[in-house]
Each structure stands twice: as structure tokens, then as C-alpha cells.
Amino acid sequence: MEECTNNKRYVFGWIGFTILLIAYFFVYFQRVSVSVLGIDMTSEIGGSIALLSSTYFTVYLIMQIPSGIMADRLGPRMASGIFLAIAAVGTLLSGFATTFTDAIIGKALIACGMAVVYIPLIKIIAVWFPKTDFAVLTGTVIAVGNVGAIAAGAPLSMLNDAIGWRNVFLVMGVITAILSMVCLLFIRNRPSDVHPEAPKEPPMPTLKALRITVLSGRRFWAPALAYMLMYGVIITYQGTWAVSYYRSVYSFVFDVAWFVTAIGIGKMIGAIIVGRYISSRNGSTKRTMIVGNLLFLLIWLPLCLTAGEIDSYVFWLAVNFLLGLFGGFMTVSFTQVKECFPISMSGTVTAAMNTFLFAGGSVMSTISYFIIQSKLPEEFRMMWIVMAACVIGAIVLCAISREHDGGNDARPTEQ
Questions:
Q1: Contact at 8 Å (CB) between 198 and 191?
Q2: pLDDT, tens digit, for every residue of 29-43?
């Protein structure tokens, strides 16, 4: 990264990257916090944790293509700044919720706003940084996101015990509002915004970008569907049911919210490892995803086969860490897909990928709502078996996906 670090031209790239990286911490924090805050929230105002989670993923899903279009057409500055303000409103509304309807509306607004952070962040990486840095920078993004997931585990549980779920939402709302203003004040969309001599090329027309994506065959569809299945498994487990499962089925002395934290730590480490591997050794993204998913499936089997039987806190802490570690390998699917398409449509193709991710989260959390009714061990076991089948499907899809087969490796054209 010496080219960017030593050249003052890219200082605004680093500023924009850092601001949106901090925002992405809270994207993950909000996404996973349902597992902890949802218990007290629904106990007080009624409703279902699964429905809160499903609402988040459904709205997030709907917003993906619009998010990509806005990142390409409006630029990261306006897109992220405006929609983080919407997320702030939703977070504050959640803190003042008196009915489950209020909570659902708040969660929908949070999802709507937080949906327009990741794609503008990827757009910043694509237009400000060399192509060779893409994998390591996206790995860093996922790692920081998972720090947010870590914070939404045991640390959030302790904060919730100390100040209550309403005050947690109010604090998050204020922070999100501040981030919105910072985005509008300091982010610059492209080098030509700061340096007029920098080359500038208009973004690809939206319909053309969508058409190229849809007709790209296994280059897009196989990794997108694979990540849809894997992400649906991981986020529904981590963000919706993990805490409820271990509290309902086991009687551990220590707080089971640390299991959610362990998943986040594992995903953070996994994302960093694979990002550096792909960037430094030009490794195969396809092979990396297959190996990671196979190991994930192996670690997942104890959940399917021994639900409620292995009464060891340390064992399950290790299992959850390893699930996060190997689940993090799928993050390189974004690198695999990005390398197959022009930078001028990076926002749109990333949005299309994200659409499948959150379709997985929405569908899987909805399925879990119908399977897990009484929080009995056999209900959880059935859900874990369904998820295992999804992981197997993801492995097959990764195996038939197509990687980039060469081409121009020059720095991407500024959009």
C-alpha cells in the first residue's frame, strides 16, 4: 500500500475509508444486537426476536440494489450520510418504543439506513486504492465489522445490564447521527473531487450493469448463492438464536453471550487471514471458500448431533470460535466476484452480492421462526440440521463457481 500511503493524493481516500469503517462497526453491532437486546425488549413490549431479526434482514435485502445504484450515481458521501441519518432516527425510535409495532418500525429504519454503508465503503476502496489492495482492505472491513459483532455479544450484555436496553438504543442513536454528519463533511467520492487533474470516467448505466451481472453465469450466480446459504446460517445462528439456545438448553454458570463474542473474534481473524493470503500470494478464492466451508461443516456437526448433551462451557466456546473462524473464509467471494467485473459497476455488482446475502439472512430467520416455537432441544437440533444442509449446498456452489481468468491488472479507472 506504499503507493497510496506515500502519495498525498490518497489522503481523502484514507479519511473516507476510516469514517465508513467506523460506521461499519455499528452496522454489525446493530445486526447482531438482536440476540442480546431482543430478549429484554420483547419481554417488556411483547413480540418475537425472530420477527425483529427477519424484519432487519428483509429491509436490508430490499435496500441492496438501491444502495448500489446510489453509491455509483450519488457517490459514497451523500449516500452514506443521508442513510446513516435514517438509521439514527430508527435507533432512537427503538429506544422509545412502547409497542412491538414501534420496535418493528424502528428496526426497519435501522436496516434501511445501515444498508447504505457497506457498498459505499467498497466503492471508496475500488476508486481510491490499487486493485492489489482490494482483498486485504475488504478483509479489514469484515474484521472491523466483526469487532462490532464481538461488542454486540458479552460487552453489550453487560452494558444492557448496567443501563437498560432503552438507553443502549439512545446512545447508539446519538453516535449514528454524529457519524452521519461526519460523512457529509469529510468524505470525498473520488480523487477528481480533490484533484481535478485525476482521470474521471462516468459510472456505467445502471441497467447495463445489472444486465451484465445477471448474464454473467457462474462468475456471479454460484458465489452469490453460496454466500447466501452460508451467511443465512451464520447470521441467524449468531445474531438470532445462539444466546437463546445456550440459555434454554444448558445451565452454564458463565454468560453464554461470550459465545457470540467468540464467533465474532473467529470471523475477524478468519477474514484477516484469508484477505492477506489472497493479496500476498494471489491464492485461489474458489479453493479458499471450499476449504473454509468444509471445515465449517465439520465443526457444525456437534450442534446437529449433540444438542443439549455436551455440558461443557469451554467446548462450546471453542466450537463457536471455530465456526466464526472458518465462516470468515467466505468473505473472499466478494474479491472473486469483483475481479470479474469493471470498476465502473463495482457498486451495482457488490449490491447484487449483498442482496443474496441478506436474502439468506431473511429466509433463514423466517424458517427458524416456524421451526423453533418452544425452544426445545429437538427444535434447535432440527434447525441446525437444516443449516447443515445449506452449508453442503454452499460447498457445491463454490465448487462450480468460476474465478477471474486473467486480464488487465492495472489500477482501476477512477469513477
A1: yes
A2: 988 888 788 888 988
